[in-house]
Amino acid sequence: MAPEDLTRPSVLTPEPHLKRKRTWPRWLLWGTLSALILAFLCVTGISAFVGWSLTHPPRKPLTGTPSQLGLNFTNITFPSRTDHLPLSGWYVPAPQANAIVIEAHGYGGNRCGDKPSLPVAEALWQKGISTLLFDFRDSGVSPGNLVSVGDFEQRDLLGAVDCAKALGYRHIGIIGYSMGAATAALVGAKDPDVAAMVLDSPFADLRTYLETGMPHWTHLPNFPFTPLILTEIPLLTGANPARVSPIKTIAQMKARPVLFIAGDADTTIPMINSVELYDQAKNPKDSLWIVHRAKHVGAYSVEPREYLAKVSNFFVQNLTGDRGRH
């Protein structure tokens, strides 16, 4: 046997288990990274879908007209303020009226979708006060492709105020329901031509309301979905919930009275929202009416006669000085 050649370097072959130790972490890294990317895409995709659905509710058809209550009315079209979207509505003139009340409907509804809307128009007509009922953008028969839950709807309600002024009215009030009530609170703080408001079941702050309610509506975990949804909505639509905060502006209505209406059985927008707004309001004529057993925008259903009396008398006192007519 030949002696070993000490000048040749020996070649060491790695053990099979050592090869596995070097390659296994690489596969683990790529697998984990791929799973995280897939999970991120799924979560952001679901969040985008929820945000898009929230701002694009299905339209509901008009199911009645003021003529059902014996009221004469005129179909009317007027532009929203700022972006001039042509909005559709009904003008219900009361004989010799010098005051008008604009009705602002709730989320996903239309000018006659809220139960009190047509009865309120009738009650006000009987008191000599005209009404203007209209559809917000992307609602009823008004054009548009986005419901911003009070952000861009402010432009629509401001356009309704402009329309009321163009019709010759200088004593202008607003009654809003749910989203319409929150929008009215913001518009009332901006436009001094709004003399008095009734806010039925408003939310105090949209972002807080969405943060609280989103997990219940979507049945998705609060984290990470709710923060993602609220981040994606402005990116997808341009609408920003942070711009819809009546609690920050209600004190600016101190020169004009507000009647707040809420139900103690409201699980959609709990009455604490109205209580908080009432606590921040500064006008000594402000009042808060909480109706026992009433659900969301449900005070009229529980106490219809008292509802119509309170609303109509409030506007008579604060728009006409106890004069419904010239």
TrEMBL record:
Keywords linked to the UniProt accession:
Hydrolase, Membrane, Transmembrane, Transmembrane helix
Q: Which InterPro entries match?
A: AB_hydrolase_fold, DNA-binding_regulatory, Hydrolase_4
Task: Specify the superkingdom.
Answer: Bacteria
Q: What is an example of a GO molecular function annotated in this UniProt entry? A: hydrolase activity
Q: Outline the extent of the Serine aminopeptidase S33 domain.
A: 96-219
What are the transmembrane regions? 27-52
Tell me if Nucleotide-binding is a UniProt keyword of this record.
no
- Cited PANTHER family: ALPHA/BETA-HYDROLASE, ALPHA_BETA HYDROLASE FOLD-1 DOMAIN-CONTAINING PROTEIN
Q: What is this protein called?
A: Alpha/Beta hydrolase fold
